Amino acid sequence: PPPPPVPVVLWHGLGDRFDGAGLQLVKQDLEARPELRHVFVHIVTLAQDGPADQRATFFGHANDQVSSVCAQLAALPRLVDPVENPSRQFDAIGFSQGGQFLRAVVERCNGPKLGGVTVRNLITLGSQHVASQSTLPPCPPNSSPFSFCRLMHLSLIREGVYSPWAQRNLIPAQYFRDPDRIDEYLDRNDFLRDINNERRGDRQPYGGGVEVGLTVEAEAGNSTGRRRNATYKENFKSLNRFVMFRFSNDLTVVPPHSAHFTLPASPNSTTCLPPCYPPPLPWSHLPLYQQDYLGLRHLHRSGGRVERGVCKGEHMQIGKGCWEAVVRHLGARG
User: Fold this and answer.
1) Is 75 exposed, middle or buried (0-12, 13-18, 19+ CB in 10 A)?
2) Span 208-230, average pLDDT
3) Three-state SS sequence of the chain
4) Could you give the CA distance from residue 300 to residue 282 in angstroms, rounded to a whole number?
5) For residues 149 and 28, what is the distance between their CA atoms, to the nearest angstrom?
6) What phi, psi does 121 have (nearest 5°)?
7) Positive or negative CA dihedral for 95, 317, 145, 134?
8) Dihedral angle computed from the Cα positions of residues 92, 98, 103 and 104, in that order, rounded to the nearest 10 degrees
9) Rounded Cα distance, 105 and 177, in Å
10) pLDDT by residue (tens digit) across 45-82?
């Protein structure tokens, strides 16, 4: 028989849960497609039951969750066994914050920490790759005052987004990058800053900081030094393809440009509401790209290995056209 297709791993977003109806439908859709016959699809789990898994999307430490998921994936025979998965690769689809978390998996765990397998294509939808200036995603109008979302709001208001407690316990605070408080972000954030290979003193897109020409070194966790992490960059550069989708009417990801790994061209345009979409800052003007902190420039200039698309609708409203654009990046057999 022919080898099975490259496996697929899904990581859900804020407020979702591994056993949620939407995620289960996504899994069933992939498994039912003739071109993906016998595909193995795994949904990341952050806890043993649905309610606890949902809570973990609001509360916890992102670094701990990424480490836990790396171990979880490395323990899956259908992912790491060379007989079960002769491709020795898998495709990763991240929904909203699950996108930057799967990128962290690529950078920190590709290869040895994933049982010898690597991520082939990383596909993200509505993810917060370079900034999130809204730490308070809207709660459902009918949600209880004691819901996870409402409790997170209260905690952020009480503790402050860059407090040590918030940076270790409130998930959205760990990818909050406020350009007006950039020094606090660079000093206190150890998730988004780390996976973007940023360091204190970096030149900023709208001015500020200095041109430091930092060197790259493979010292993981060197958050106080001035060297960048070479392992992160090499692992990110190893992707076959990095595909990012933003949503045309996204009110949750602020600015929505972050889903395409950039910012608005002007800092004064971040309050423009969809369907208004201010011109994006060209990557050639983004220090992270100019100095290639992470390998994004390398991928982009390597023959179509970076793609950006737009899904019509609000945040995480994935229509048929959008989903088909995702699925076309899946399916090669080992």
Assistant:
1) exposed
2) 54
3) CCCCECCEEEECCCCCCCCCHHHHHHHHHHHHCHHHCCCCEEECCCCCCHHHHHHHCCECCHHHHHHHHHHHHHCCHHHHCCCCCCCCEEEEEEECHHHHHHHHHHHHHCEHHHCCEEEEEEEEECCCCCCCCCCCCCCCCCCCCCCHHHHHHHHHHHHCCCCHHHHHHEHHHHHCCCHHHHHHHHHHCCCHHHHCCCCCCCCCCCCCCCCCCCCEECCCCCCCCCCEEHHHHHHHHCCCEEEEEEECCCCCCCCHHHHHCCCECCHHHCCCCCCCCCCECCHHHCHHHHCCCCCHHHHHCCCCCEEEEEECCCCCCCCHHHHHHHHCCCCCEC
4) 13
5) 28
6) -115, 130
7) positive
8) -130
9) 20
10) 999 999 999 999 999 999 999 999 999 999 999 999 99
What are the structural domains of the chain? 8-327 (3.40.50.1820)
> In this structure, what token pair is assigned to residue 74?
């490395």
Q: How far apart are CA 308 and CA 63, in angstroms?
A: 27
Q: Are 53 and 20 in contact (CB under 8 A)?
A: no
pTM: 0.90
Q: How many Cα atoms occupy the beta-carbon half-sphere of 232 within 13 Å?
A: 24
pLDDT above 60 (res 211): no
State the average pLDDT over residues 310-331: 96
Q: Which two tokens stand for residue 324?
A: 């088909």
| Cβ-proximal residues to 167 (8 Å cutoff; 6+ apart), any chain | 173, 174, 188, 189, 190
